[in-house]
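Whether sequence alone determines local backbone shape is best considered at the level of individual chains. We regard such an encoding as a compact summary of how the chain folds. The sequence in question and its structure tokens are set out directly beneath this paragraph.
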Amino acid sequence: MSDVSDFSRFRRNPMFMEESDGKLCCNLCHYNCEIKNGSFGACGVRGNKGGKGIIPFYGFITALAIDPIEKKPLYRFKPGSKILSLGFAGCNLRCPFCQNWHISQNTDIADFESDLGGRRKTGRGVVSGKWMQPQEIVNAALANHSPSIAYTYSEPLVHAEYILDCMLIAKKNNIDNVLVTNGCMNQSAAKEILELTSAANVDLKCFSADTYKNVLGGDLQTVLDFIKLCFEMKVHLEITTLVVPELNDSVKELNDIADFIASVDKDIPWHLTAYHPDYRWNAAPTNPQFLREMAKEAGKKLTSVYTGNI
């Protein structure tokens, strides 16, 4: 584990932040944040120090594990293989049912220059992790004979610069790059990352623009465009929807999602997964029978529909 004292070797200039009319703008995701000096953007990890963009979490890994690839979930990409999975801090959504909220969602505003030893403060709180250079990630995949690396757990795309550096090295070592993402990323940045991506699982959390905006802090059209771009760029694509009671579990909304996926390609696998109470959402767990019935209904439109978390 690297010490915070030598953290300077991990810093680099952000690729997707620029000065405009005296303000610092981040054009990575749908928020297009104007970040004030000493503050972070909506993701809690992309900041402004003295009018310059900083990414003080470059190389800060909150989770590292070897998983079966089906856990991502990816059922039609290298089935039966294992994958090195790494997680990060922060997220550009505010899902009240988040199952990884300890690393993605904290609310305390903090001084990002604090020395915390083995911990690091995001713009919203404290998370634990360790420092790893991109080459160390690839070395870990090679040492564990993992043919793929997954960028996952919390939202990886807000760490675009680090992911790109990892992806370039992985590609040179014939290791596939896999994204597990909410898809809330602007097209120009998405294209750059998807060029190096072999497979992606995109969370299509609902099919209501109002729910995305007012409950999740996201943007439905941005996600739909990201999914279409994945398909156009020939990235292996699978889609996951966590079926959350009192949020997105109407028959109509789930049918609308199935119709959208079919309009892109009926062969895109769709994972319908069961919710359990977590973080700030306390509805009853998803009814397994309802999930199976919706999967059966969606199977009339799509080639592959799976249920999970039952």
In short: Residues 4-54 form one domain. The chain has eight helices and 17 strands. The first strand starts at residue 17 and ends at 20.
